[in-house]
Every structure is written in structure tokens, then in C-alpha cells.
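Researcher: Next entry in the queue.
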Amino acid sequence: MSGFDPGRIVALDAPVLCLDTCTVLDLMRDPTREDMRVNDRRAGLALLALAEGETDLVVLVAEQATHEFGEHAKAVQNETEKAIKKLEDQLRRIDELAALYGTVGKASLVHLNYHHARARAIVDRWIKTATVVPQGAEIPARALMRLNTARTPARKGKDSMEGLRGDRDLSRRCGCITSRRPQTADRFCLVQRE
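Model: Structure for this entry, 194 residues:
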């Protein structure tokens, strides 16, 4: 991870992927959730491989997102461990019921042992690869104003002050890159989970 240097990013002329906290946390979430899709994870790993090359894809993450990740990562990991344990318990119960009817065999989820650790290793690769965009001094006041007035993108109750600070600062910083080279504006992708 290098320091935030808009000039270097412009010179690379590479696509820019901007990540928010929830997107990073989603990489570690419970794999039994209905909204977990194999193709999304496959594409994510392909993008990560591009980003790790340091010339084909630039990944930006707001400084605020790194703080939020630190606050929530353990809870997401615990949620994942509980969900896998619940799935194991369900399969054990199903195996016992099937055995009562004369079947022999047990389902195995041994391949899910330490899933949370493998997922965290992938997240750590994303974090290592990403360029942290430092927070501008004016961002907290702007985010608070938007939250208090319920102006887009803020919605009272759903959005946190922290999330708004990160999103607004990242958007502003990306603007300083595209203003240097307007033809690069179509190379930005902000990945956010609703």
C-alpha cells in the first residue's frame, strides 16, 4: 500500500475501485447467507489479483473505512463462526434422523474449518493492496450537516456519521484525480453495499 498520490494514480491510467467498509466486511461474512454468490467472490478474487500487480487496478479506501473495519471485523468473524456451527448442528441432526431410517453416512463440513481465517487473509490482502485516502479536515462537519438535515446521501437512522465521512471524503478525493485528467472519470467504480 502506497500513500495517496493523485498524480501517481493519474499517471497509471488504470481503473480505480473505491471500497467502503461493508464491502470489505462482506468478504468475511457467513457463507451460508442467501446473498453470498460464488461468482461475486470469484470476480472479487480476480480483481484482487489485478490490484496486487499495482499497475492494472488501483484500489482506494477511505481512512474512515479502515477505522470502521477495525471496529466491526471481530463481530463479523464471530457471526460467521456461529453460522457455520449452526449449519454443522443442522447436518448432525439430519444425519441422526436419516440413520433412524436406516441410512449410513455422515455429512462432513471439515472443509469449512477455519473458513473465517481464510476469509480474513483475503481481506488482509485487500487492505494491504488498497491506498488509504486520508480524511480531509472539512469532511466531519459536512457529513454531520448532511446527517442532521437528512440530505442525500444521508438518511437519518440508517447512515452513520462515520460512514458519511468516509463516503464524502473518498468522493471528494476521487474528484481531485478526475479534475487533473477528466477522461479518467469513467474509470472509477465505487463499490458500496446498501
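Model: Confidence is low (pLDDT under 50) at residues 154-158.
Researcher: Noted, moving on.
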